[in-house]
Amino acid sequence: MIYSVRTGDTLSQIAQRTDTTVNKLAKVNDIPNEDLIYTGDQLKIPGQKDDFAQAGAQQPGSPDLVGGAQPPSATPPVGEAQAPGGNSDSTTAALEQARSLIGRGYGDPAGASGEAVGPNSPTMHCAQFVNAVYPDLPPRAPELAQMATPGLEPKAGDVLTSTQPAPWGHVGIMTDQGTVIHSIPGAGVHESSLAAFEASSPVTGVIPR
């Protein structure tokens, strides 16, 4: 049986509906993080036949929760399936922070290419810029590239990584306009098209946010 993940689903809920366990679902679908699934994912349900009634199918008279409006203060619980674009509040805040850094110069004031400099620094290289927006991420492009997942479709707020140019690679943040904010020599922190970013740094992975 194949289950199509809906907005608001969690692996725990899906496991209960389909009479299986979270561990089995994660194992058979190669899900590395049980708290992270996406709307539209096609999950194989272990032990269920294809002719089994689709789990989670809408029952007559029951409220339609797909895409249902959330109260302004509502925050999706951990593990809940996210619609494309992620949590709008956190994405908006991250992009506001990223755009506030546009115009900062390119450089490494820490002098070691691997130290965080924070959002108040007048200069920063690409990974220090990402760290200034997302302090939980390391300010080093090679480490960010190792954390990234190849082949993901990036959404607003996600971190794009590239192993080029060698030896350090390059990173940036995808915006809600499909552009990328990043820091490069000669331009500093700026916003460019995805094509311009990939001209010298083809995207090799994405860190979802």
Order of helices and strands: EHHEHHHEEEEHE
Average of the residue pLDDT scores = 81
Distance between the termini: 30 Å
CATH topology name of the largest domain, in short, is endopeptidase fold (from Nostoc punctiforme)
The CATH superfamily label of the largest domain reads: endopeptidase domain like (from Nostoc punctiforme)
CATH class of the largest domain: Alpha Beta
The structural domain count equals 2
Sum up the overall morphology in one term: elongated
Query: Based on the structure given, which CATH architecture of the largest domain is correct?
Result: Alpha-Beta Complex
Count of helical regions: 6
Compute the number of strand runs. 7
Task: Give the helix level as a range of percent.
Answer: 10-25%
Give the low-pLDDT segments. Answer: 50-86
Structural class estimated from helices and strands: alpha+beta
- The side-by-side strand order for the widest beta sheet comes to 6-5-4-3-7
Largest sheet: 5 strands, antiparallel
Strand content: 5-15%
Using only C-alpha atoms, the radius of gyration works out to: 20 Å
Question: How would you briefly describe this protein structure?
Answer:
This protein has about 210 residues and is of the alpha+beta class. About 25% of the residues lie in helices and about 15% in strands. It folds into 2 domains: about 1-80, LysM domain (Membrane-bound Lytic Murein Transglycosylase D, Chain A); about 90-205, Alpha-Beta Complex (endopeptidase fold (from Nostoc punctiforme)).
